[in-house]
Amino acid sequence: MFYYTILLLLTSIPTSFSAIVDPTEAIHRFLTYEETNEFLHTLALLFSGKVSVEKIGETALGRDINVISINYNAKKKVILVANLHAREWAAMSSALYIISELVYNGDQYPELSQFRWMIIPMANPDGYEYTRIYDRYWSKNRSPQPNSRTFGVDLNGNFGYKWDENKYRVDPSSRTYNGPSAFSERESSAIGQLLNQHADNTILYADMHTFGNHIFYPWGYTTDKAPDSGKSRAVAIVGVDIIREKYHEYYTVGTSAHLFERTYGSSLDYCHSVGINVCLWFELTNVGFQIKESDIERFGQEAWAAITAMAVRANQIVDVFYPE
């Protein structure tokens, strides 16, 4: 009956869509930018009662930055962002795995239906397409830089909180170049506006990256303790515990300033600065930036287990009032 319904719905899909409706399409191979958007829009068409897609911005090269909302009538929100760094394909594919599971199998998880899931699976489409065609290890976006022959900004260093605290000049040709100013990039600006718009009723934000097997909580720019960061730490611990229990992978929990290095202008710190209850930076996998397509589902399952457990825990411990 399910597949018969899908076949009937397919007859109403515009010819511009390639009809990627089988969830295995998104979890068994790496999709292109065009295929990813087709997948999202097809889901919105097939499941219009609970799924919508919104364009929140446009890149320097004219590609759409899209957010998919699942259970769009729910008041409490979970926001996931993936692929800010172009070469981190497993973050994108894991986000698509989460989307597929929520849409196709959401009825199996009633505890998750109380949340509006807002997911940006490809936050850096220009950079991602560049890694597919030219340079697999490219990390930045592809915006032309003023007064320079270089291209690209590290999007996870371009958010508007403590961006200017980094006293060391970063060359525009560097992989970690944070841009000429905070929010100079269309991608970070669009995500920053989304976080601001939904800050009051977002219970969890997770910025999904690879690799390293870490979950960071604020602050990243300093070793000082962030106010009220205990909630984020407690939620992160739930995530690493379930990954260890189910997949025997060991993750560390802490701040990037303590475990890695100080990071300025990150989406994590910006999230905490606008008052979102739980803000996390999730470094998936420990196998490097390149993973086999046969491992997409495995890492998607790890991300799914951690993200959903953390969403449930965040909902339990945050103190947010949602008016009827």
Structure description:
- It is built from ten helices and eight strands.
- The protein is α/β, with parallel strands linked by helices.
- It has one domain (24-318): Zn peptidases (Aminopeptidase), CATH 3.40.630.10.
- It is globular, with a radius of gyration of 19 Å.
- The two termini are 36 Å apart.
- Keywords: Carboxypeptidase, Hydrolase, Metal-binding, Metalloprotease, Protease, Signal, Zinc.
Model regions low in confidence, pLDDT < 50 over at least 5 residues: 1-19, 320-324
Number of helices: 10
Give the percentage of residues in beta strands. 15-25%
Q: How many structural domains are formed by the residues?
A: 1
Q: Any idea of the CATH class?
A: Alpha Beta
User: At CATH's second level, what is the architecture?
Assistant: 3-Layer(aba) Sandwich
Give the helices and strands as they follow along the chain: HHHEEEHEHHEEHEHHEH
Neighbour order of strands in the largest sheet: 1-2-4-3-5-8-6-7
Compute the CA-based radius of gyration. 19 Å
Shape: globular
Number of strands: 8
The third-level CATH topology is Aminopeptidase
Terminal CA distance: 36 Å
Throw out a few tags for this protein.
metal-binding; eight-stranded mixed β-sheet; 8 strands; 324 residues; 10 helices; Aminopeptidase; alpha/beta; carboxypeptidase
Task: Offer a concise description of the structure.
The radius of gyration is 19 Å and the shape is globular. It is built from 10 helices and 8 strands.
List the helices and strands and how they pair.
Blueprint: H1 2-10, H2 24-27, H3 33-46, E1 51-58, E2 64-70, E3 76-82, H4 89-105, E4 115-120, H5 125-133, H6 186-198, E5 202-210, E6 214-216, H7 230-247, E7 252-254, H8 256-259, H9 267-273, E8 279-284, H10 296-317
Parallel strand pairs: 3-4, 3-5, 5-8, 6-7
Antiparallel strand pairs: 1-2, 2-4, 6-8
